[in-house]
């Protein structure tokens, strides 16, 4: 593959005895809407943190649009936008001030920051709350202002860790529209999610991660294979098919004796 947005080679991360990421080799194609899926604890957040320069790998290399994340971090950070899990924001700034500050940090001229901030606040339905302090924003509003901050400098690759978690359907639709427009112009989105229906409807490329390793990666149709849905393919790939949920919980339920 020549046109890779992200190239991961031999990536490892251990926390004590726990192997969080156990030797990942993966190339993510540029210009695609890419879903990184996996069960709880699969290593999605750890992988995204290492790919975006937030967590140093034990072994392995990551290149983003041709630049090594750990040897050339400034070049990479200039070209990416990140919406991390457990997003920390400057709580005592208003939404508009946060964007103003982010834009100046990114080295954009003030007038350009103002113009882009106005448009993003408008498209993301935050214009009415732009002067409210971020500390008073709801979960969905925080995701949206975080997304606006990540998009402000028009990055080549956008990384989103669970962008739709805690977001209502209306806000999800808004976020989705912005991301679709962004990828239609040739940019790359990489996002992690547990919600297979969402991944199936948004992504054209998928990587399945389980227990710190890649189980499958490729165009959505290829990963889905003969399965009717991505959910079915996912359950088989992560080895969860046929598990009898709750079969041991014979005490649970109103009718059972105490
Ligand atoms: N800082 C840490 N210290 C110790 N263990 C950690 C740390 N961060 C992650 N882990 C462990 O590494 C493994 C992968 O965690 P990670 O958060 O990357 O998974 P995930 O796929 O993002 O999960 P989820 O979908 O539940 O958010 C888990 O077993 C987790 O307990």
Automatic annotation (TrEMBL):
Domain of life: Bacteria
Cell division among keywords: no
Pfam (any one): ABC_tran
Membrane topology type: Peripheral membrane protein
An individual GO BP term: response to antibiotic
Record's keyword annotation contains Signal: no
Subcellular location: Cell membrane
GO MF assignments: ATP binding; ATP hydrolysis activity
Domain spans labelled ABC transporter: 6-236
Name of the protein this chain belongs to: ABC transporter ATP-binding protein
Classification lineage: Bacteria, Bacillati, Actinomycetota, Actinomycetes, Kitasatosporales
């Amino acid at each position: 593959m020549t046109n890779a947005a992200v190239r991961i080679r031999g990536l490892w991360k251990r926390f004590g005895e726990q192997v969080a990421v156990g030797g990942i080799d993966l190339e993510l194609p540029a210009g695609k809407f890419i879903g990184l899926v996996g069960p709880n604890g699969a290593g999605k957040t750890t992988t995204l943190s290492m790919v975006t320069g937030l967590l140093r790998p034990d072994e392995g290399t990551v290149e983003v649009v041709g630049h090594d994340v750990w040897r050339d971090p400034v070049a990479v950070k200039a070209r990416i936008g990140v919406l991390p899990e457990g997003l920390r924001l400057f709580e005592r700034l208003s939404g508009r001030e946060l964007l103003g500050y982010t834009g100046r940090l990114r080295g954009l001229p003030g007038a350009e920051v103002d113009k882009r901030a106005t448009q993003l606040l408008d498209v993301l339905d935050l214009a009415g709350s732009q002067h409210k302090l971020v500390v008073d924003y709801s979960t969905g509003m925080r995701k949206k202002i975080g997304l606006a901050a990540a998009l402000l400098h028009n990055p080549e690759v956008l990384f989103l860790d669970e962008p739709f978690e805690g977001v209502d359907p209306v806000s999800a639709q808004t976020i989705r529209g912005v991301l679709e427009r962004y990828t239609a112009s040739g940019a790359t989105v990489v996002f992690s999610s547990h919600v297979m229906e969402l991944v199936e409807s948004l992504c054209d490329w998928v990587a399945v991660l389980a227990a710190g390793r890649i189980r499958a990666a490729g165009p959505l149709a290829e990963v889905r294979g003969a399965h009717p849905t991505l959910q079915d393919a996912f359950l088989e790939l992560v080895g969860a098919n046929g598990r009898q949920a709750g079969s041991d919980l014979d005490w649970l339920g109103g009718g059972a004796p105490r």
